[in-house]
Write a structure and sequence with these properties.
The protein has 210 residues and is of the alpha+beta class. The chain has one domain (2-47, 81-208). Helix content is 30%, strand content 28%. The strands form 2 sheets. The chain has a 5-stranded antiparallel β-sheet with strand order 2-3-4-5-6. A hairpin with a 2-residue loop joins strand 5 (148-158) and strand 6. The radius of gyration is 23 Å and the shape is globular.
């Protein structure tokens, strides 16, 4: 009996330390090659090259003139620039650009699901939990269905304990795009601009419309 009580006390102490006094995450870093690949993906989407921002064109390049200015060229559209596949590691590395956010947010990607871990400091004046740092987990359904994106909160938990839907404003499993997409706001613009959106195991695919 005494051993059971001791084990229960130790598990309770571990749960409290892990979830009510949570330590910050370690920011994700990329190797030089991985960073170059990520830059290339973002460049395709933005229609720019990283070198265009960091250094002027070389004197012999097709983009330069003798005065060092960019040479004019006809406008073209490359369909490949509208499609972006980003890995879970690359996504976390983008978050790590802001160190404070990187220590509080971590994202995992699996089929049709974005899982987010959050370390959230609680205001000192908040009842019971004031001054503590909570570790939250939430799941977001993300996919493309019937020609439009589907975005829905699957749930939120603290230390593996799911929060009641009522505490979340009764929005669990509510398709936010369907609910708010016809009002001309963000979700409407988002739907009209996305041709395909898929979350795979470890990667996110976004394809923009023409």
């Amino acid at each position: 009996m005494g051993a059971c009580v001791l084990v229960a006390a130790m598990l309770s102490a571990w749960w409290v330390k892990s979830n009510l006094y949570a330590s910050p995450f370690s920011p994700t870093t990329l190797t030089e090659r991985e960073q170059q690949e990520l830059n290339a993906k973002l460049d395709r989407l933005q229609g720019n090259t990283q070198s265009a921002w960091t250094s002027p064109p070389s004197a012999g390049s097709a983009e330069s003139k003798s005065e060092g200015r960019l040479a004019p060229e006809p406008y073209t559209e490359d369909a490949a620039r509208r499609e972006l596949r980003i890995t879970e590691k690359e996504l976390n590395a983008l978050i790590a650009k802001d160190e404070a956010t990187a220590r509080r947010v971590a994202i995992a990607l699996s089929t049709d699901l974005v899982s987010v871990k959050l370390v959230v400091p609680v205001d000192e004046e908040f009842p019971v939990l004031g001054g503590k740092t909570l570790r939250l987990n939430c799941g977001i359904t993300l996919r493309h269905e019937a020609g439009r994106p589907v975005v829905a909160l699957r749930g939120v938990s603290i230390g593996g304990v799911p929060l009641p839907n009522a505490w979340l404003g009764n929005i669990k499993n509510v398709d936010l795009v369907r609910e708010f997409g016809g009002q001309g706001g963000f979700w409407d613009l988002f739907t009209k601009g996305v041709e395909d959106l898929r979350v795979l195991d470890g990667s996110l695919l976004i394809k923009l419309r023409e």
